[in-house]
Design goal:
One of its GO terms (cellular component) is plasma membrane. Keywords: Amino-acid transport, ATP-binding, Cell membrane, Membrane, Nucleotide-binding, Translocase, Transport. Belongs to the ABC transporter superfamily. The chain is an alpha/beta fold. The longest helix is centred in the middle third of the chain and has 18 residues. The protein folds into two domains: 165 residues, Rossmann fold, CATH 3.40.50; 94 residues, Alpha-Beta Plaits (2-Layer Sandwich). Helix 3 packs across helix 4, helix 4 crosses helix 5 and helix 5 packs parallel to helix 6. Strand 4 and strand 5 form a beta hairpin. The chain contains 13 helices and 14 strands. Helices cover 34% and strands 29% of the residues. A six-stranded mixed beta sheet has the order 6-7-8-3-9-10, sandwiched between helices. The chain has a four-stranded antiparallel beta sheet with strand order 2-1-4-5, with helices on one face. Bound molecules: adenosine-5'-triphosphate. The site of adenosine-5'-triphosphate has 12 residues, from strand 2 and helix 1.
Length: 362
């Protein structure tokens, strides 16, 4: 097997529970009429990790979240939170377990008639803590999210990013075992999104907080997740460390979700691409690990006589691992030269695909 494109790991149904699992789902199914919203979902979130679940609209993400916090009951399968099976519990038994999960939402869900500090302290009020204790904890959390000076402000006077910071502080008030983020940055501009994601990563590191994050944006996954699970039509179609899924997306849906943030063949060249004869072959080269770290192209030029041109591409860093895609144009008239180029790149653990030929686009 190509060592730089490791097979992505799957957690089989019935895997013995590990004590470090904060969440474990086994064979979760939920159907609405003819629609299987969840069709046998099994996955685990380990203590201290950030798991990202990504899928398109209608893939089953909301249903999964509702099963996790006990708002929805699965038709079959199990939901374990900190080792306790919750899917068959009644409302009264669910209440204390729900408090082990802090949630943040796309539209923040703050109470407009309450001050920032009272919003943050709300989960503690529900738990019956005295006011002085609640406010002390709120002050601590507002400092953590960088909003101490807004303690007495009302939500209406805050920006979207500030509102989400309050949402994060509130979600942490009762010291949850898990932070569940439901499209928490989808309503924010790119810069604010980056700052909120940086804050979540910071809190994950500082407090060792376990985070399960649901999104439809690969950029969010790339920024902060340790592991990613791709959901489509109620099934986990791919799962693994983020960099390995980025380096070697197996399913068409993952490839398509990655499309927006990975180098693509420029439209001008794609338009002229033919599967027939042409003067230049267009190669797509995926590299990761050592091949992406080293001087791949200058080594190619030194080892294989003859020309080639870089037409597009780049190396990105995902979880500090280089992951790249390059597009080369290689003269097609000399078949041996083309074969040598491909053989050299494959020997360097690159994945090479001949996309087609172009007559001439220079
Ligand atoms: N209460 C319901 N009644 C009928 N169908 C439902 C219900 N809830 C979900 N579905 C269907 O189940 C499928 C999964 O829906 P779900 O809301 O979980 O997806 P999603 O990934 O969260 O989508 P989105 O990102 O658009 O919110 C969809 O086909 C949806 O129409």
């Amino acid at each position: 097997m190509n060592q730089h494109f490791p097979a992505t790991a799957k957690i089989p149904v019935g895997t013995p529970e590990r004590p470090e699992d904060v969440v474990r789902l086994t064979g979760l199914k939920r159907r609405f009429g003819a629609t299987p919203a969840l069709d046998g979902v099994s996955l685990a979130v380990q203590k201290g990790e950030i798991l990202g679940i990504i899928g398109r609209s209608g893939a089953g993400k909301s249903t999964l979240i509702r099963c996790l916090n006990g708002l929805e009951r699965p038709d079959s399968g199990q939901v374990f939170i900190e080792g306790r099976e919750i899917s068959r519990l009644g409302e009264r038994e669910l209440q204390p377990l729900r408090r082990r999960i802090g949630m943040i939402f796309q539209h923040f869900n703050l109470l407009s008639a309450k001050t920032v500090e009272d919003n943050v302290a709300l989960p503690l009020k529900i738990e019956g803590h005295p006011r002085a204790e609640r406010l002390a904890r709120a002050a601590e959390l507002l400092e953590l999210v960088g909003l101490s000076e807004k303690a007495k402000a009302y939500p209406a006077s805050l920006s979207g990013g500030q509102k989400q910071r309050v949402g994060i502080a509130r979600a942490l008030a009762a010291r949850p075992a898990l932070l569940l983020s439901d499209e928490a940055t989808s309503a924010l501009d790119p810069e604010t999104t980056r700052s909120i994601l940086a804050l979540l990563k910071d809190i994950n590191r500082q407090l060792g907080l376990t985070i399960l994050l649901v999104t439809h944006e690969m950029e969010v996954i790339r920024s902060i997740a340790d592991r990613v699970a791709v959901i489509d039509a109620g099934r986990i179609v791919e799962e693994g460390p983020v960099w390995s899924v980025f380096a070697d997306p197996k399913s068409a849906i993952t490839q398509s979700l990655l499309g927006g943030i990975r180098p693509q063949l420029p439209a001008e060249i794609a338009r002229r691409l033919t599967q027939g004869a042409g003067t230049e072959a267009i190669l797509k080269i995926d590299v990761a690990g050592e091949a992406a770290r080293g001087p791949l192209l200058s080594d190619l030029a030194a080892a294989v006589p003859g020309s080639f041109r870089l037409v597009h591409g780049g190396i990105d860093y995902v979880q500090r691992q280089p992951v790249g895609t390059l597009f080369l144009a290689v003269p097609a008239a000399d078949a041996i030269h083309l074969e040598q180029v491909i053989a050299f790149l494959r020997a360097r653990e690159a994945r090479v695909e001949v996309l087609g030929h172009v007559a001439s686009f220079a």
